[in-house]
Every structure is written in C-alpha cells, then in structure tokens.
Amino acid sequence: MSDQELAAAEQQLANSARRLAEGVAQALPGWVVAAVQSRLPRIDPQTREAAEAAGLAAAAEIGGQVAQLLAADIDDQRENPLALLRRAVRYPTEVLSAAGAPPIERDDFAIERFPDDVYDLIPASFADIHPDLQTPGLEWGAAKAFVHRRRHRQSG
C-alpha cells in the first residue's frame, strides 16, 4: 500500500470516527430517558426532568470521552467506544434508583460481568443506544481494522 493510499484510509477512519462520536453525543440523552421509561410503568414530571438532565450529563461526560478516544491515534486507543458507552448506564440507574424502581432479575453472567447494572441496561452494541449508530459503529470498526492492519503488516 502506498503512502497516499494509507493516508486516504486514515482520512476515511477519521471521518467515520467523527460521525460515530457525533452520533453518540446526539443519541445519549434520548437513550437515558428511554432507559428510565423502560423500567418505570409511569414517570412523574420530576423523574422525567431528572432523566432528561441525566441524559444531557451523559452526553457531556461519556460523549466527550468517546469523542476524545476516537480523536486519538488508533495505536494510542486502549479502550473501545462501546466500553465507554457502557459506563453511561450509571445515569439512568441513578434516576431509577432515586425513583424507587426495583432492580431487575438478571442471569448469573450479567450479574458477574456487570454487577452495577441492576436494571439490565448495558448496551450490547451501538444500535442498543440508537439504531442510527449501527452503521457508523461498523464503519469505524472496519476502517480501524483496515488501517491497523496496513500500518502493522509484516513485510516478507
């Protein structure tokens, strides 16, 4: 692969990273509210307001962390964006707990792997945050793998 082809692939990676980061920041507020609504049969105005505020806080904190990670060179990335998104579970969890929502019964794997996710909200994929994140997430992952492979290919 020529230097010019690698530069084009890296530009494609940067573009897909930007789209994913922007999508995450836009989707998190709605995801937090939807997560709260999914566990409460009825939401009073105070709880809805708390969920909306928590969603904005999640977008600022977790969305910012995702953007920072995706802006870093791939060789410096020590986590993946989905792992960061999973940390956003604390936002709807805090709202649900304050509203007195009972924990959800979970299987042993979920309890062991995600002990703090008492409402079983952990996203398994980008699409669990919002369906519109599926494609940018896949595009970013494929572009990252392509660039990584080209950068670190052993010659010979």
Describe the structure using short key phrases:
156 residues; mainly alpha; elongated; 69% helix
Structure description:
By secondary structure, the chain is mostly helical. Helix content is 69%, strand content 0%. The chain contains seven helices and no strands. Helix 1 runs antiparallel to helix 2. It is elongated, with a radius of gyration of 18 Å. 29% of the residues are buried. The mean pLDDT is 94.
Compute the gyration radius: what is it? 18 Å
* Mean pLDDT score: 94
Approximately how much helix is present in the residues? 55-70%
Shape: elongated
Oligomer: single chain
Approximate strand percentage: under 5%
Question: What's the total number of strands?
Answer: 0
What is the succession of H and E elements? HHHHHHH
End-to-end Cα distance: 14 Å
Tally of helical runs: 7
Low-confidence stretches: none
Which structural class is indicated by helix and strand composition?
mainly alpha
Largest beta-sheet characterization: none
Write the layout of secondary structure elements.
Elements: H1 3-39, H2 45-71, H3 81-86, H4 90-98, H5 108-113, H6 126-129, H7 134-152
